[in-house]
Specification:
heterotetramer, A alpha+beta (337), B mainly alpha (101), C mainly alpha (541), D mainly alpha (260), A: 337 residues, alpha+beta, Immunoglobulin-like, Cytochrome Bc1 Complex, Chain D, domain 2, 5-stranded mixed sheet, 9 helices, 14 strands, 35% helix, elongated, B: 101 residues, mainly alpha, 2 domains, 3 helices, 0% strand, flat, binds heme-A, binds dinuclear copper ion, binds copper (II) ion
Chain lengths: 337, 101, 541, 260
């Protein structure tokens, strides 16, 4: 729900969403009733019984047992209704149906790794079919995390040394947030992702390896995940490596004070021999992928990186194959600073 | 105005009782009572503690307020341990750490 | 009439001069003043970190400070505000100052322990601040394991030990109050003649005495794990990280009642005084404080609904959580009823009392959302929780504290502050507060997680509102710091009872004598009787 | 409470203010009651302080019962039993010290206090012996922790006896559900708790002995009489409390499962 284009209510994308929201509106209405009731009473008394002259004192009313009973019994009853309703929703949330499809999630500082039974692995991205109950078994490799799908109204902590689980049934295809909601260290806020709810048919296609019919850039995107590039290069810029979004055509400042314009050659060099040019403000952490990535894959990767910069295609020089692997400082680097 | 002075013989008796109970705990530990070993040990320890509190610490002769304070301590300790058990007692059957199962 | 009022020649402020007469004093009133100064410093320090947080969150990208720095900000903010500001605030300042005169005693039962607890507080504060400034910690104020036991940095232990030390200050204050209230009441001051402020402090002290040792032992366990390599909470050594959460919340949930109960006590005094009417249902309000304190100990795991506790335990604790709502409801309704047929006036303290009424109610009621199981799954660790607790702690406890401070300021210093500026400040605080934290309910339900250094773009507008509100709020807090200090020299002389209040503390001079009273008063009246006061007031005018 | 003022008058007539009466109290009785209640409230916090540890102990004992049983058998019943007796004895001597203070026997008070401190020191001495033994067997949690070493691979001849005893005991064991690797992990939890609990208990005893040193000096100087002996009584309460903690620690740590 949006007001003036600002979302003020989360999307309802799972079967729980309606349940939880109904509960929410019930509690909201009850609480609003009490809050507004108290406010109105207090303001009314404030005006009606405003002190009129010095030395005036209030009437001596010590209290009233019936009233006390009334306003402790009524809230008690209401509270029990809230508890009962909340508990029943909760019970439902905690009992995955037996036929649920099974997915594993592993939390790790600072990424979510998902694994489908069919073998697909994803990082910070999860593809699921709509209209099927899905059970996610959660564990952690290091500290506490918490897997949160706001659009599905469910979350569960990831606890090292133990398995926990949650389940949901997504209904509306679309893309929704995944958040980590248990504080887990520096990049806690970078531990986010997207859950992609697909139509069942689309999901089957995706399972069959979307890369087959997928474009090069899509294959590159997959590689970007499979080679774990995405573990360091987060779009938010908070990974261990710089964000690669909209990077093409930009001028980057390097550690040694010089700078370079990003083109395909620079990208390639950065991948194959990352130590050659260290981006300012980062550690030389990135492994060299020389010999680890086949040419095809390299191309796909670069294609993917380019696709991350939709507005900058014209600025990039054409890929020059192997030649580009050698540094081109004179051509590309423009002294600045 | 000074507090109640207990006879020395009482102190000696309590001391002897405590020693006997200590021997009893150790003895009980060597008898296989299954689940009840722990219970017996705790009951004996609780009894010993009561003797110390009641006679050595003069709670028997102390004001109601002091007695209430002691009771409060035990009550909240019971809340602490009891409600821990609400979670761990119900979890133990369902979820052991995986590296143990 | 104003000319007749003079500052009393002899009072606790001029009974001894020089630093030593303060640092070595055993007078509960001077100790309270030193606490006042210390916690004010801590409040502004904690507020500064809040400014950092809100600046960062003004834009979705993490651009103002780095993620690690941001995490240290909210940790410092939480730790300072909770352990070094709010927990000592009302008890150590107003409680310390007022409990003895309210019950007709010359001092607390253990004046030396009172002074020691101030020093302990200072040591703990210096310890924590030093560790925080020399590198900081980024665990959040909750110190969850295993991150705090194995991750983060080695400042965890010194900061936690600082909290451990400060905890003993809190314990000793509570111990002192309990014994004082039991054993030092003036003749005729029966339990049911005690001001509700004293009842509230009695309940608070119970929590301090019973809860704080558990956080102390938890910190010891954390320290031996981190420092000596013991295995207690670390799962890689067979430990259970959730155990830490149980132990932590066994203290920290009751601790929220250490923060709010004294404010509830202040509220009762304000509502009664400014409607010149006895409290409606005195004994219910009095016992509800104790009930909140006791029930507060059986609900802690409502912070852990998604942390892997058993489904059964979650149900039990959710059920129990609603038990605290009933005594709280009693209080709210009784205050409202007190206003009925009162003689109400709106001096600054009453403005705060009105603000408190609304904000505490909203804060408490949103606590019910969180206690409701199905919903907490969605709301846990989102900004909804942040909004909930700021509504109670800032909107409730700080409003209560400021209301109390304005109410008793003439008693403490003997002088009045500017009524004009203080009303402006009260309104600024109310408006700024709502602007800051109301949007957080919305953004919380939308799903924005807490402790996030950056967030999705679509949530920016609500966050900008919040940041804007925080600046108004900051201004609202800055004002009192100025006009209250100003009043010390230039304020009008207040006289013993400027508000026409009924408590025993108003029957002695302001500022009081070191012994509080010229002779031990003998109480022969019920609490909150305004007939006598009004008669006197007329006489004066 | 209502006739406090009257009390003050009574006393004023009877004899002059006792030198130990502080200005904000009306009577010695009020002052003493305040101290006793204050001390008990303090002990209340101590109960909850150890309570947190007991809670942790309880949880792991449920989870890792076999490891706890196994590890607890490695403690020496002799030393543990001896210490229990010593501590109970010291409670008796402490009670006697208070009694002598009550009845205004100065030298006897001092002597009983000294005896109590000696017994406390004996207890701590035994603890040192036990701790040293743990160090030797790598039973101190941390990076050098080794569970198996103590039982399976005795380093030298002197351990042979212990080892054969261990083996004999092992035969009688009901079957353990834990592998050596799991034992290594979970016995460490036991020892972590063992050291934290006994360490904090020992720390309390050291503090107690410190307090008693001061009080013994005061008693020696004749600061107490049957009107005013509150410090002795307070020290006594504290010491008895420490004794009670041990009364629970002993079965919890030494007697988890001895019958096999
Ligand atoms: C002063 C502080 C304070 C106070 C008083 C409270 C009071 C309450 N709190 Fe709050 N709370 C916090 C401070 C406080 N809280 C903090 C700091 C956190 C977060 C900690 C962290 O994770 O960092 C938190 C988190 C928190 C959670 C965990 C959320 C989560 O992390 O998922 C829950 C869940 O149940 C909760 C519930 C409650 C309840 C039921 C009350 C009740 O006591 C409220 C009672 C009051 C009322 C109900 C209002 C008055 C009543 C009426 C007007 C009548 C109508 C009543 C009925 C119809 C029943 N709180
Ligand atoms: C008593 C407790 C207390 C108080 C008073 C406050 C006061 C404030 N808090 Fe808080 N807060 C907590 C306790 C408290 N907080 C806790 C426990 C947490 C959780 C920490 C954790 O997750 O570990 C938290 C977390 C927290 C967050 C969430 C951070 C996150 O999860 O990422 C935010 C975000 O907006 C926030 C904001 C504020 C603001 C704007 C104020 C304002 O009320 C502050 C107003 C004060 C000032 C502004 C300073 C004084 C004024 C000046 C110096 C004048 C000059 C300034 C200006 C004009 C701007 N706080
Ligand atoms: Cu992972 Cu937060
Ligand atoms: Cu809580």
């Amino acid at each position: 729900m949006k007001i003036f284009g600002i979302p003020i209510f989360p999307e309802q994308a799972s079967t729980f969403a309606a349940d939880v929201d109904a509960l929410y509106f019930f509690v909201l209405a009850t609480c609003a009733f009490f809050a507004i009731g108290v406010a109105v009473a207090v303001i009314y008394f404030g005006i009606r019984y405003h002190k009129k002259h010095d030395g005036e004192i209030g009437a001596r009313i010590e209290g009233s047992l019936p009233l006390e009973l009334l306003w402790s019994v009524i809230p008690t009853i209401i509270a029990m209704v809230m508890f009962g309703w909340g508990a029943s929703v909760f019970y439902h949330l905690r009992r995955p149906p037996a036929e649920a499809m099974h997915i594993y999630a592993v939390g790790k500082q600072w990424m979510w790794k998902f694994q489908h039974l069919e073998g697909q692995r994803e990082i910070n991205e999860l593809h699921i079919p709509a209209g099927r109950p899905i059970k996610v078994t959660i564990s952690s490799e290091d500290v506490l995390h918490s897997l949160f799908f706001p659009a599905f109204r469910t979350k569960m902590d990831a606890i090292p040394g133990r398995y926990t689980e949650l389940w949901f049934e997504a209904q509306t295809p679309g893309e929704y947030h995944i958040f980590c909601t248990e504080y887990c260290g520096t990049n806690h806020s970078g531990m986010i992702g997207t859950v992609k709810v697909l139509e069942p048919a689309q999901y089957q296609a995706w399972l069959q390896g979307g890369s087959m019919e997928g474009t090069l850039a899509q294959r590159g995107a997959k590689l970007f995940n499979d080679l774990a590039c995405s573990t360091c290069h987060l779009d938010t810029g908070q990974g261990r490596g710089p964000s690669l979004k909209d990077i093409l055509g930009k001028t980057v400042d390097l550690q040694d004070g010089s700078s370079a314009i990003v083109d395909e050659g620079y990208l390639r060099e950065s991948i194959l021999n990352s130590q050659a040019k260290i981006v300012k403000g980062f550690q030389p952490l990135m492994p060299t992928f020389q010999g680890l990535i086949s040419e095809e894959n390299l191309v796909a990767l670069i294609e993917h990186l380019k696709s991350l910069s939709p507005n900058a295609t014209t600025a990039a020089a054409p890929a020059t194959g192997a030649a580009a692997a050698t540094p081109q400082p004179a051509a590309a680097a423009v002294e600045k600073k | 105005m000074s507090g109640h002075v207990s006879p020395i013989s009482l102190y000696i008796t309590i001391f002897m009782a405590l020693m006997v109970l200590t021997v009893a705990t150790v003895g009980a530990a060597f008898v296989d009572l299954g689940q009840f070993n722990f219970l017996v040990a705790m009951i004996i320890a609780g009894f010993k503690a009561t003797l110390v509190i009641w006679y050595f610490m003069h709670v028997k002769y102390a004001s109601k307020l002091t007695k209430l304070t002691v009771a409060t301590g035990i009550f909240f300790l019971a809340i602490l341990l009891g409600l821990f058990l609400v979670d761990y007692g119900s979890k133990a059957f369902t979820q052991m750490p995986p590296f143990l199962s | 009439m104003l000319d007749q009022l003079k500052m009393p020649a002899r009072n606790y402020l001029n009974n001894g001069h020089g630093l030593a007469s303060w640092l070595l004093t055993k007078d509960h009133k001077r100790i309270a003043i030193m606490y006042l100064i210390s916690i004010s410093v801590m409040f502004f320090l904690g507020g500064l970190f809040a400014v950092g947080i809100r600046l960062e969150l003004a834009t979705p990208a993490g651009d103002f400070v780095q993620a690690g720095t941001y995490n240290k900000f909210f940790t410092a903010h939480g730790v300072i505000m909770v352990f070094f500001f709010l927990i000592p605030s009302i008890p150590a300042v107003l409680g310390n100052f007022l409990i003895p005169p309210m019950i007709g005693a010359k001092d607390l039962a253990f004046p030396r322990i009172n002074l020691i607890s101030l020093y302990i507080y200072w040591i703990g504060g210096v310890f924590t601040l030093y560790a925080m400034l020399s590198g900081g910690v980024d665990t959040g104020w909750t110190f969850y394991t295993p991150y705090s036991a194995t991750g983060s940095n080695s400042n965890v232990v010194p900061v936690a030990l600082g909290i451990f030390i400060a905890g003993f200050s809190s314990i000793l204050t509570g111990l002192n109050f309990i014994v004082t209230i039991h054993r030092m009441r003036a003749p005729g001051m029966t339990w049911f003649r005690l001001p509700l402020f004293v009842w509230a402090h009695y309940a608070t002290s119970l929590v301090q005495v019973l809860g704080t040792p558990v956080i102390a032992i938890t910190i010891v366990m954390l320290a031996v794990e981190r420092g000596l390599g013991f295995g207690i909470f670390d799962p890689s050594r067979g430990g259970d990280p959730v155990l830490f959460q149980h132990l932590f919340w066994f203290y920290s949930h009751p601790a929220v009642y250490i923060m709010i109960l004294p404010a509830l006590g202040v509220q009762s005094e304000l509502i009664s005084t400014f409607s010149r009417k006895t409290i409606f249902g005195y004994s219910f309000v009095a016992f509800s404080s104790v009930a909140i304190a006791v029930f507060g100990f059986i609900v802690w795991a409502h912070h852990m609904f998604v942390s892997g506790i058993s489904t059964y335990a979650a149900m039990v604790f959710s059920f129990l959580s609603f038990s605290v709502a009933i005594p709280s409801a009693l209080k709210v309704f009784n205050w409202a009823a007190t206003l009925y047929k009162g003689a109400i006036s709106f001096e600054t303290p009453m403005l705060y009392a009105y603000g408190f009424m609304g904000l505490f109610t909203i804060g408490g009621l949103t606590g019910l959302f969180l206690a409701t199981l199905g919903m907490d799954i969605h709301l846990h660790d989102t900004y909804f929780v942040v909004a909930h607790f700021h509504y109670i702690m800032v909107g409730g406890a700080i409003m209560g504290y400021l209301g109390g401070l304005h109410f008793w300021w003439p008693k403490i210093t003997g002088r009045m502050y500017s009524e004009f500026f203080s009303r402006i400040a009260a309104i600024l605080v109310f408006v700024g507060f709502n602007l800051t934290f109301f949007p957080q309910f919305v953004v919380g339900y939308l799903g924005m997680p807490r402790r996030y250094h950056s967030y999705p773009d679509e949530m920016q507008v609500l966050n900008v509102l919040s940041s804007a509100g925080a600046s108004v709020l900051g201004l609202g807090y800055l004002l009192p710091a100025i006009y209250l200090v100003w009043s010390l020299k230039k304020g009008e002389v207040a006289g013993p009872n400027p508000w026409g209040a009924s408590g025993l503390e108003w029957q002695t001079q302001s500022p009081p004598l070191t012994e509080n009273f010229v002779e031990v008063p003998i109480v022969d009246r019920e609490p909150y009787e305004y007939e006598h006061v009004a008669a006197k007031e007329k006489h004066l005018v | 409470m209502s006739n406090v003022a009257a009390h003050a008058d009574d006393r004023g007539h009877a004899h002059a203010h006792h030198p130990a009466l502080q200005h904000h109290f009306d009577t010695m009785a009020q002052q003493k009651e305040a101290a006793v209640v204050g001390m008990w409230v303090f002990l209340l916090t101590e109960i909850l302080f150890f309570g947190g540890l007991f809670a942790a102990y309880m949880v792991y004992r449920i989870w890792y019962f076999d490891a706890f049983a196994e590890a607890s058998r490695s403690l020496s019943l002799f030393w543990g039993g001896l210490n229990t007796a010593v501590l109970i004895g010291s409670s008796l001597t402490m009670a006697m010290a208070v009694r002598c203070a009550q009845t205004n026997k100065r030298t006897a008070t001092v002597n009983w206090l000294i005896l109590t401190m000696i017994l406390g020191a004996v207890f701590l001495g035994v603890k040192v012996i036990e701790y040293a033994d743990k160090f030797e067997h790598h039973h101190v949690p941390g990076y050098n922790f080794q569970w198996a070493a103590a039982h399976e691979a005795p380093a030298a001849g002197e351990h042979a006896v212990a080892a054969s005893e261990g083996a004999a005991a092992a035969e009688g064991h009901r079957e353990l559900s834990l592998t050596p690797a799991q034992l290594q992990l979970t016995t460490q939890i036991y020892f972590s708790l063992y050291f934290t609990m006994t360490g904090l208990h020992a720390l309390h005893m050291i503090i107690g002995i410190g307090i008693m040193l001061v009080i013994t000096r005061m008693a020696y100087q004749g600061k107490f009489d049957q009107e005013y002996y509150t410090p002795v009584e307070m020290a006594g309460l504290y010491w008895h409390f420490v004794d009670i903690v041990w009364i629970f620690l002993f079965p919890l740590l030494y007697l988890v499962e001895r019958h096999v």
